[in-house]
Amino acid sequence: xxxxxxxxxxxxxxxxxxxxxxxxxxxxxxxxxxxxxxxxxxxxxxxxxxxxxxxxxxxxxxxxxxxxxxxxxxxxxxxxxxxxxxxxxxxxxxxxxxxxxxxxxxxxxxxxxxxxxxxxxxxxxxxxxxxxxxxxxxxxxxxxxxxxxxxxxxxxxxxxxxxxxxxxxxxxxxxxxxxxxxxxxxxxxxxxxxxxxxxxxxxxxxxxxxxxxxxxxxxxxxxxxxxxxxxxxxxxxxxxxxxxxxxxxxxxxxxxxxxxxxxxxxxxxxxxxxxxxxxxxxx
Length: 283
Known about the structure:
A five-stranded mixed β-sheet has the order 4-3-5-10-6, with helices on one face. It has a three-stranded antiparallel β-sheet with strand order 8-7-9. The protein has a two-stranded antiparallel ribbon with strand order 1-2. The chain has helices spanning 3-15, 18-25, 29-43, 59-85, 102-114, 198-204, 218-228, 268-281; strands spanning 48-51, 54-57, 90-96, 119-125, 141-145, 153-161, 163-168, 232-235, 244-248, 255-262. The protein is elongated and about 75 Å long. The chain is α+β, with helices and mostly antiparallel strands and 283 residues long. The relative contact order is 0.14. The longest helix has 27 residues, at 59-85. 38% of the residues lie in helices and 21% in strands.
């Protein structure tokens, strides 16, 4: 069995849909279907039950699924170890804003344990680039937050964090138990610079165009509120600092922590990063 064919099989087994698996593999569906049929012929048994209601693994398929994932994981580790022995194993990780996140710390510890000979280069970015340099080709993988323009990227959600309004402590709204975005409609907000990803800008502005001081970093957001009495959004569990308060926004969706990388990048260090990140952010 070729590793490429096993990768095709694993993609279909994980998606349980030939169309979605083909998109994920950046190929059309007919050659994918033919590859699976050849694999079934080689195995001598059906791997999938196909019906009008969908695709499911057969008992034989379930066994092969477990073994194929283990084999592909081992093949990835082999590539990493050989590269490390040759002194060429590096990965550049882009991190947005707060790298002191407990999930990020657990991820760093676990990744170092799994890949002690890999050099991890960190590029911490400000709030103006939520892809942390992915679109510019400056990093291999990003540990960041959505939403942003995901063209050409693959993302995996790791956690969802509630958000709140960041206010001066003496602001009358700071005494409220909760707020809605409409409660802040007549206020000046801190905003990101012109040219910042529109999806990212819109989310942190509560879905509406805003006017106010331009900021590029978390510290600047806090200072803009403290000095100008403007408002904005922040993570609910972040300590705002002296003179500031955070009030829950009940009608805003949570801020989602994601791992992101370029579509089609088969670097095993990135695949390993994804798996370790999922475990680390589960706590």
